[in-house]
């Protein structure tokens, strides 16, 4: 028994979460003990309390968009997935919060509320401005709004009662959240300080009187997911198809890299190109068009210098990439090539070569001094960059289409009309202290700075007793020569690197098969089996319905 306990001592948090979720997934029968019932004992005399059912049909719904941020390292990607995942997904946790607060009807699922996302992010990737659109419960009655779908009865219910428990995706019960949320039984009421009488005398309410979506959800979500704002939208609005561009940021340090050479490689991305050699090829998606339009690709310094005395990783930079849409892992593949260019193992023209896929329409040299440009019709094998520093910064929408707002009531009428209540003027209902979202994020940032300062001083302490290794990169006249047998590290972002004793140029590496070949093989194997399963499932449903 002691041995079984000791084997968990060195497990990471992610390992524990993965282990617990796997056990939950493999359980054949759920426990009969729920947050609403307790096992009968000789001391129990009162029957368990039966929760009052919540009737969604008597409440109005409206179409809105939610903007939220999340730290991707804690999640198995954004999109909810079928079956077991080692970590929870962001949508899974956000959906549970929406269900727990009774803002959506769980019976309809994602499809029932018209759920659409701006952009999908993979495991480990963060976002500072993800957007989803959905139909959500509203408290507005007789409001002159085209996206209010039902006129409800006057009787309303609070979204959260003592019964009901929400799982935050980490195996923890967050029932009893008054300390975190300031009383969940008041968030869906019209604010008393608006001097509005919600009665037959004055039935009309405005968006300022709407349910406190931001405070409500943040009160039950883990701190690694924060709802930033919401906006009313038209009934036919789609967060996915209305998005005109996606803006990604990738943060990295300059250690071992020539930034100007990387900028030379980055600017070659602007325009419409075929990116099949700069993404992960997934035959299951059956993609045949790899053309994507890039509006912006540049590298700028953040003005932060990490590590004094030459011990640290250098200055912090950010790669900004803006495009209409992106392929699977496209940004991380692009960043991996930029790292190779930055080390000077590769010439910036490698980026142009990887975009030169069609022998019938070859690209001209990007610069007169570029070497001859080969046609690269199949993808060379190389490792993509780390997901940790990648952030979906924002999705861009048509000017005036979205009027983001929080639960505050602006004191500035112009701000209220424009929906921009992020001005420096304090709002009438702005919360102070721990419930203020800006304050929460600032404390997170402060803790991160303190941790960075501690790590830097630990590095200085180490330098007193251990020599700094030779820096072979970027390759330059005054750098040590990479001799045969010397192991060096090629940056992959986020403090990770690929260790090797010999570098093989990208265009001399093994190639994957062509997209057409991969797609056809999938159709003949896995695709055939998937069609058979879907057909069998449809037949079972039809037999059940008949």
From TrEMBL:
<dbReference type="InterPro" id="IPR020095">
    <property type="entry name" value="PsdUridine_synth_TruA_C"/>
</dbReference>
<dbReference type="GO" id="GO:0003723">
    <property type="term" value="F:RNA binding"/>
</dbReference>
<dbReference type="InterPro" id="IPR020103">
    <property type="entry name" value="PsdUridine_synth_cat_dom_sf"/>
</dbReference>
<protein>
    <recommendedName>
        <fullName>Pseudouridine synthase I TruA alpha/beta domain-containing protein</fullName>
    </recommendedName>
</protein>
<feature type="domain" description="Pseudouridine synthase I TruA alpha/beta">
    <location>
        <begin position="266"/>
        <end position="358"/>
    </location>
</feature>
<dbReference type="Pfam" id="PF01416">
    <property type="entry name" value="PseudoU_synth_1"/>
</dbReference>
<dbReference type="GO" id="GO:0009982">
    <property type="term" value="F:pseudouridine synthase activity"/>
</dbReference>
<dbReference type="InterPro" id="IPR020094">
    <property type="entry name" value="TruA/RsuA/RluB/E/F_N"/>
</dbReference>
<dbReference type="GO" id="GO:0031119">
    <property type="term" value="P:tRNA pseudouridine synthesis"/>
</dbReference>
<dbReference type="GO" id="GO:0005634">
    <property type="term" value="C:nucleus"/>
</dbReference>
<feature type="region of interest" description="Disordered">
    <location>
        <begin position="414"/>
        <end position="433"/>
    </location>
</feature>
<dbReference type="InterPro" id="IPR020097">
    <property type="entry name" value="PsdUridine_synth_TruA_a/b_dom"/>
</dbReference>
<keyword id="KW-0819">tRNA processing</keyword>
<dbReference type="InterPro" id="IPR001406">
    <property type="entry name" value="PsdUridine_synth_TruA"/>
</dbReference>
<feature type="compositionally biased region" description="Polar residues">
    <location>
        <begin position="30"/>
        <end position="47"/>
    </location>
</feature>
<dbReference type="GO" id="GO:0005737">
    <property type="term" value="C:cytoplasm"/>
</dbReference>
<feature type="compositionally biased region" description="Acidic residues">
    <location>
        <begin position="537"/>
        <end position="546"/>
    </location>
</feature>
<feature type="region of interest" description="Disordered">
    <location>
        <begin position="525"/>
        <end position="546"/>
    </location>
</feature>
<comment type="similarity">
    <text>Belongs to the tRNA pseudouridine synthase TruA family.</text>
</comment>
<feature type="compositionally biased region" description="Polar residues">
    <location>
        <begin position="418"/>
        <end position="430"/>
    </location>
</feature>
<feature type="region of interest" description="Disordered">
    <location>
        <begin position="30"/>
        <end position="51"/>
    </location>
</feature>
<dbReference type="GO" id="GO:1990481">
    <property type="term" value="P:mRNA pseudouridine synthesis"/>
</dbReference>
<keyword id="KW-0413">Isomerase</keyword>
